[in-house]
């Protein structure tokens, strides 16, 4: 019998919590949790870095043969061919409204940007109108081909190095199921089409168990039965899905249901989606998911976290935000249920001109949000009956030299934004406008009483308005104030900057 090779276990790191020594003033349990979180965050950052490198490598590999063909054609036909190519690519981008594709810049966009950059290079600009222009253009293209090849090789080496480092450690990501045996009694079902629409509708048999005071973990995993997490639940709070800044930004994107009243729980017969829905909102969602693919990973918990956020926002009176969170949570579910190409399939159907698929999905959103709203109202009544709400959320500065101020938006941003001053060239006006619009939307989501208090910019007035709110609502409002940049802290301390002792 051959010897067993145990060398692979040399890379498995085992740790006993009892071996960890910490400072007497540091809580050991908190230190261990911090270390675990630090490991997972670093691992997540490596995944994101790898994803970006792989995407850049794919783009470089696709651009290389296009550049080579351009070089040969320019060498053969001269600067005239180069100019025709620039004109062709420019016209194509103008047809798309000077916008990138749904997954970012297309290959044509990348080539156009490169050709325009070559046109601005010193040797090319100085050669315009001369016989040397043809050879100078070819040399410039070949120079960029060499840079592209060097960068591609650099990325390949980096990915190879990351692979070697990953193989040195055994993590949960590298584990695969070995032997497993199970017996499932199958229910005979009629054959269904692959990637049917709506996903999993009519082909999944579920047994629904009605529970009193269900936990938040149950609520987030079952969107048909939403309710709050009670303060005295025995579940560990660490199991609660965590909302991240990326999830919040995704939830805040414009909703396709924006023109529909919040009280609507179902579209009426004869509803015309093309005229009454904001279907172009799906374009922004598609673009955002293209640059934040981690939102689609099941282990990221996007859908669960957004459903919990939807309930908390509804409890806090942020009804519009609650429905937006519900919409994005179900969108993630639909994309994942449609299979490998689920994202493309979903958004193709959403942006279809007849809008029938959008009605199916958005009807699901309306009914799910209606259940969340209903459950939130029940819990509000219960908390009031139990006397909750005696506590108040008040804004106070711990440092006596700190002054709390409020900077409220004057209105929605203009259609065109011109950036001036230091650092203006590093900012994208479209992103700035999107941020200003989101800031204005957050301000408008507050109730009239609180908006009037903010407009006074008086801390006492704002605290009085916060004091009239339930604690849960006030907590969400303060978070939104900070997220929108409305809440500011300014120091009044006078510092000696002269260096005198």
TrEMBL record:
Name of this protein: Hsp90 chaperone protein kinase-targeting subunit
Pfam families: CDC37_C, CDC37_M, CDC37_N
Lineage start: Eukaryota, Fungi, Dikarya, Basidiomycota, Ustilaginomycotina
GO cellular-component term (any): cytoplasm
Keywords: Chaperone, Cytoplasm
Subcellular location: Cytoplasm
Start-end of Low complexity biased regions: 212-225
Region feature Disordered, mapped onto this chain: 159-244
GO MF terms held by the record: heat shock protein binding; protein kinase binding; protein-folding chaperone binding; unfolded protein binding
Domain Cdc37 C-terminal: from-to ranges: 406-500
InterPro entries: Cdc37, Cdc37_C, Cdc37_Hsp90-bd, Cdc37_Hsp90-bd_sf, Cdc37_N_dom
Domain Cdc37 Hsp90 binding: 200-389
Entry's Gene Ontology BP terms: protein folding; protein stabilization
